[in-house]
Amino acid sequence: MNKIKPASIGAMLLFSCGVAHAIPYDIGTLNATPYGSDTKTVTGSTRFEDRYIFDLTGTSPWAVGIGLSNIPLTFPGRPPLYDISGLNLGVYNNSNAPMLDNDANPLSFIGTLSPGTDYYMKITGTPIGSIGGIYVLGAVAAAVPTPETWTLVTVGLGLLVWRQARRRAANKTPGSLAAA
User: In this predicted model, what pLDDT tens digit does every residue of 40-75 receive, in sequence order?
Assistant: First the structure.
Protein backbone atom coordinates (compact mmCIF):
# COMPACT_ATOMS: atom_id res chain seq x y z
CA MET A 1 0.00 0.00 0.00
CA ASN A 2 2.81 2.42 0.86
CA LYS A 3 4.45 1.82 -2.53
CA ILE A 4 1.23 2.43 -4.47
CA LYS A 5 0.52 5.84 -2.88
CA PRO A 6 3.79 7.54 -4.05
CA ALA A 7 3.42 5.96 -7.50
CA SER A 8 -0.16 7.23 -7.88
CA ILE A 9 0.82 10.73 -6.72
CA GLY A 10 3.69 10.75 -9.23
CA ALA A 11 1.37 9.63 -12.02
CA MET A 12 -1.14 12.38 -11.17
CA LEU A 13 1.60 15.02 -11.19
CA LEU A 14 2.94 13.77 -14.50
CA PHE A 15 -0.54 13.78 -16.05
CA SER A 16 -1.37 17.26 -14.73
CA CYS A 17 1.84 18.69 -16.25
CA GLY A 18 0.99 17.41 -19.74
CA VAL A 19 -0.75 20.59 -20.93
CA ALA A 20 -0.12 24.01 -19.46
CA HIS A 21 -1.95 27.30 -19.93
CA ALA A 22 -5.41 25.76 -20.56
CA ILE A 23 -6.98 29.20 -20.12
CA PRO A 24 -10.13 30.27 -22.00
CA TYR A 25 -10.30 33.89 -23.19
CA ASP A 26 -13.73 35.26 -24.17
CA ILE A 27 -13.22 37.73 -27.01
CA GLY A 28 -16.95 38.36 -27.45
CA THR A 29 -18.62 38.86 -30.81
CA LEU A 30 -16.53 38.55 -33.94
CA ASN A 31 -17.65 41.00 -36.63
CA ALA A 32 -16.35 43.27 -39.41
CA THR A 33 -14.15 45.10 -36.91
CA PRO A 34 -11.02 42.93 -36.78
CA TYR A 35 -10.07 41.26 -33.54
CA GLY A 36 -6.65 42.87 -33.70
CA SER A 37 -3.32 41.38 -33.02
CA ASP A 38 -3.39 39.58 -29.70
CA THR A 39 0.21 38.89 -28.78
CA LYS A 40 0.61 36.12 -26.22
CA THR A 41 3.79 35.07 -24.45
CA VAL A 42 3.95 31.51 -23.16
CA THR A 43 6.59 30.29 -20.74
CA GLY A 44 7.93 26.94 -19.65
CA SER A 45 8.74 24.01 -21.86
CA THR A 46 5.53 21.96 -21.69
CA ARG A 47 2.85 21.84 -24.36
CA PHE A 48 0.31 24.64 -23.94
CA GLU A 49 -3.31 25.03 -25.01
CA ASP A 50 -5.08 28.40 -25.16
CA ARG A 51 -8.73 28.85 -26.11
CA TYR A 52 -10.36 31.98 -27.48
CA ILE A 53 -14.18 31.84 -27.30
CA PHE A 54 -16.24 33.91 -29.74
CA ASP A 55 -19.72 34.12 -31.23
CA LEU A 56 -21.39 35.61 -34.31
CA THR A 57 -24.55 37.75 -34.47
CA GLY A 58 -27.52 37.88 -36.81
CA THR A 59 -29.08 35.13 -38.89
CA SER A 60 -26.85 35.11 -41.98
CA PRO A 61 -23.61 33.12 -42.25
CA TRP A 62 -20.30 34.91 -41.74
CA ALA A 63 -17.06 34.58 -43.70
CA VAL A 64 -14.36 34.24 -41.04
CA GLY A 65 -10.61 34.61 -41.43
CA ILE A 66 -8.17 33.76 -38.63
CA GLY A 67 -4.39 33.90 -38.72
CA LEU A 68 -1.76 32.73 -36.27
CA SER A 69 1.97 33.39 -36.34
CA ASN A 70 5.00 32.32 -34.31
CA ILE A 71 7.37 35.19 -33.41
CA PRO A 72 10.81 33.63 -32.83
CA LEU A 73 13.54 35.74 -31.25
CA THR A 74 17.06 34.47 -31.84
CA PHE A 75 20.57 35.85 -31.93
CA PRO A 76 23.31 34.38 -34.14
CA GLY A 77 25.24 31.57 -32.47
CA ARG A 78 22.86 31.31 -29.52
CA PRO A 79 19.81 29.15 -28.80
CA PRO A 80 16.47 30.93 -29.38
CA LEU A 81 15.11 33.09 -26.58
CA TYR A 82 11.52 32.79 -27.83
CA ASP A 83 10.23 30.11 -30.19
CA ILE A 84 7.31 27.67 -30.41
CA SER A 85 7.44 24.22 -31.94
CA GLY A 86 4.31 22.66 -33.43
CA LEU A 87 2.21 25.82 -33.26
CA ASN A 88 -1.30 24.86 -34.36
CA LEU A 89 -4.71 26.52 -34.75
CA GLY A 90 -8.01 24.68 -34.46
CA VAL A 91 -11.53 26.12 -34.77
CA TYR A 92 -14.38 24.25 -33.06
CA ASN A 93 -18.07 24.75 -32.31
CA ASN A 94 -19.51 24.46 -28.81
CA SER A 95 -20.02 20.70 -29.38
CA ASN A 96 -16.24 20.34 -29.90
CA ALA A 97 -16.73 19.49 -33.58
CA PRO A 98 -13.82 20.77 -35.70
CA MET A 99 -14.74 23.46 -38.23
CA LEU A 100 -11.63 22.95 -40.36
CA ASP A 101 -9.19 20.39 -41.58
CA ASN A 102 -5.93 22.13 -40.78
CA ASP A 103 -3.55 19.55 -42.21
CA ALA A 104 -2.87 21.83 -45.20
CA ASN A 105 -2.15 24.97 -43.15
CA PRO A 106 -2.15 24.65 -39.36
CA LEU A 107 -1.77 28.43 -38.85
CA SER A 108 -4.86 29.84 -40.60
CA PHE A 109 -8.59 29.38 -41.06
CA ILE A 110 -10.78 30.79 -43.81
CA GLY A 111 -14.34 29.56 -43.88
CA THR A 112 -18.04 30.22 -43.38
CA LEU A 113 -19.60 29.89 -39.93
CA SER A 114 -23.25 30.21 -38.93
CA PRO A 115 -24.43 32.38 -36.04
CA GLY A 116 -26.39 31.01 -33.12
CA THR A 117 -23.63 28.96 -31.51
CA ASP A 118 -20.41 29.69 -29.70
CA TYR A 119 -17.11 28.81 -31.34
CA TYR A 120 -13.60 28.66 -30.02
CA MET A 121 -10.10 28.81 -31.41
CA LYS A 122 -7.71 26.32 -29.83
CA ILE A 123 -4.03 27.22 -30.07
CA THR A 124 -1.47 24.59 -29.11
CA GLY A 125 2.28 24.31 -29.25
CA THR A 126 5.43 23.72 -27.22
CA PRO A 127 7.71 26.61 -26.23
CA ILE A 128 11.30 25.71 -27.14
CA GLY A 129 12.98 29.06 -26.47
CA SER A 130 15.04 29.48 -23.34
CA ILE A 131 12.48 32.03 -22.07
CA GLY A 132 9.39 30.61 -23.82
CA GLY A 133 7.52 31.51 -26.99
CA ILE A 134 5.44 34.29 -28.50
CA TYR A 135 2.50 34.02 -30.91
CA VAL A 136 0.24 36.59 -32.56
CA LEU A 137 -3.44 35.95 -33.29
CA GLY A 138 -5.73 37.99 -35.55
CA ALA A 139 -9.32 37.38 -36.65
CA VAL A 140 -12.02 39.11 -38.72
CA ALA A 141 -15.54 38.27 -39.91
CA ALA A 142 -17.76 39.66 -42.68
CA ALA A 143 -21.44 38.97 -43.29
CA VAL A 144 -22.15 36.79 -46.33
CA PRO A 145 -25.02 38.19 -48.44
CA THR A 146 -28.04 35.90 -48.58
CA PRO A 147 -29.70 34.90 -51.88
CA GLU A 148 -32.55 37.30 -51.06
CA THR A 149 -30.07 40.18 -50.81
CA TRP A 150 -28.55 39.33 -54.20
CA THR A 151 -32.05 39.11 -55.71
CA LEU A 152 -32.97 42.56 -54.43
CA VAL A 153 -29.71 44.06 -55.68
CA THR A 154 -30.19 42.49 -59.14
CA VAL A 155 -33.81 43.68 -59.40
CA GLY A 156 -32.81 47.19 -58.30
CA LEU A 157 -30.02 47.39 -60.89
CA GLY A 158 -32.42 46.05 -63.55
CA LEU A 159 -34.96 48.78 -62.74
CA LEU A 160 -32.25 51.46 -63.00
CA VAL A 161 -31.15 50.16 -66.43
CA TRP A 162 -34.77 49.96 -67.64
CA ARG A 163 -35.45 53.55 -66.45
CA GLN A 164 -32.31 54.86 -68.17
CA ALA A 165 -33.24 53.08 -71.41
CA ARG A 166 -36.74 54.67 -71.37
CA ARG A 167 -35.22 58.13 -70.83
CA ARG A 168 -32.85 57.68 -73.76
CA ALA A 169 -35.67 56.46 -76.00
CA ALA A 170 -37.88 59.43 -75.03
CA ASN A 171 -35.08 61.95 -75.79
CA LYS A 172 -34.35 60.60 -79.28
CA THR A 173 -36.12 62.14 -82.23
CA PRO A 174 -36.74 60.31 -85.52
CA GLY A 175 -34.26 62.57 -87.34
CA SER A 176 -31.43 61.84 -84.93
CA LEU A 177 -31.30 58.18 -85.98
CA ALA A 178 -30.59 59.10 -89.62
CA ALA A 179 -27.72 61.37 -88.60
CA ALA A 180 -26.01 58.57 -86.68
Answer: 889 888 999 999 999 888 877 888 888 899 999 999
Residue 160 phi, psi (nearest 5): -65, -45
Give dist(CA 140, CA 135) in Å, integer: 17
* 3-class DSSP string for 32-85: CCCEEEEEEEEECCCCEEEEEEEECCCCCCEEEEEEEEECCECCCCCCCCECEE
Domains belonging to the chain, first-starting first, are 15-144 (2.60.120.380)
Kindly state the greatest CA–CA separation across the chain. 113
Positions in the chain short of pLDDT 50:
1-19, 180
Any idea of the CA torsion for 19, 20, 22, 23, to the nearest 10 degrees? -170
Buried b (16+ CB within 10 A) or exposed e, 113-148: bebeeebbbbbbbbbbbeebbbbebebbbebeeeee
Q: What are phi and psi of 179, to 5 degrees?
A: -70, -25
- Which letter does DSSP use for residue 116 in this model? S
User: Pseudo-torsion of CA 40, 54, 118, 52, nearest 10°?
Assistant: 0
Cβ within 8 Å of residue 38, ≥6 positions away: 27, 52, 136, 137, 138
Read off the pLDDT of residues 69-84 as tens digits, 9 standing for 90 and up: 999 999 999 989 999 9
Q: What is the pLDDT of residue 88?
A: 92
